[in-house]
Amino acid sequence: MDTVFSSSIAPSLNGFLAQKRSLGYKYETEEYVLHTLDRYWHDNNGNNTDITEKNLEGWMQKKETETVASRSSRVNVLRQFTLYLNGIGEQAFIPMDKCIKSHPVFHVLTTTEIQELFQVIDTYSHRRRQSSEVTRMIQEYKILFRLILCTGLRKSEALGLRLQDVNLSENTVSIYQGKMRKDRLVYMSPDMSELISDYLKYLSRQIGNEPFWLFPSVDPAKHMSGGCAQRFCDFWNMTPSALNCEKAPTIHSLRHTYVVMRMNQWMENGYDLRVMMPYLSRQLGHVSVDETFYYYHQVIDAHRIIHQKDTLASLVLPEVRVK
Fold it and tell me: Does domain 106-323 have CATH number 1.10.443.10?
């Protein structure tokens, strides 16, 4: 088969194919896949050489005549090609390892939205009579949502934290039996540790003894339930930004926002995101670094969603006051 490609990305395709064969791979079936990509690019993207998700979207769609497994194999060739490009310093969208379905698009909060959200949370109080337990829970929300935003924890991981899982002297949180039953150590800022320390003193006074759970429910013997998701929505709906928001954020959006802000901060400091991905992957508890690369191309394609150079901690830590 003729190995000369004709699209605007032909030099990159030829370089990738040459590298694979120099390593001893036959790459015959894969070469055919690359030719289909070359033709698609020529017909749909013209002289454009930006390898983004949008420019590849049509080619990655499952064809009526192929199985899910066949599509996954085809897209995997593209994945190897884009990994090669990033490896030689050319930014390119990297498909997930198993492209069975597309990822939902989550709301990444802007600096203004973060400030509005925590302004609402920090000043919230019921107008009607409320029990001491409800008052305590409002204080817990202030810490819970900050912790997720400042560490990227999953909601279930944060809610299930015991007091013994938090090491304030080392600024760490131990996650046991996370996704795929993996344990990991998550780091937080000294400011976050100090905030939790003050919060625990408040919690002990309210409960009457040292709590077992970091975020106890109305019944201190149990941890806060996942129903706090509705409380998050209530807080968000009180912000000015909620009036003009097409896709409202969820608690999980705090995790996404942490990742995007962390990556933007690294970009500001001149770090190579591809080098930092494995570290971020461990922090997030991803099964593989491939899951984290989803955020990589999301940040690149978003053209730097968050432009401010402010650190994440400075946005959300100083405001809260636990009484």
Answer: yes
Please, what is the average pLDDT of the chain? 84
Query: What is the Cα–Cα distance from 273 to 263, expressed in whole angstroms?
Result: 7
pLDDT tens per residue across span 181-231: 678 999 999 999 999 999 999 999 999 899 999 999 989 999 998 887 678
Q: How far apart are CA 102 and CA 213, in angstroms?
A: 36
Domain ranges of the chain: 10-87, 106-323
Q: Are 220 and 167 in contact (CB under 8 A)?
A: no
Per residue in 267-323, pLDDT (tens digit) is 788 887 777 888 888 888 887 776 776 666 555 544 444 444 344 445 555 455 555
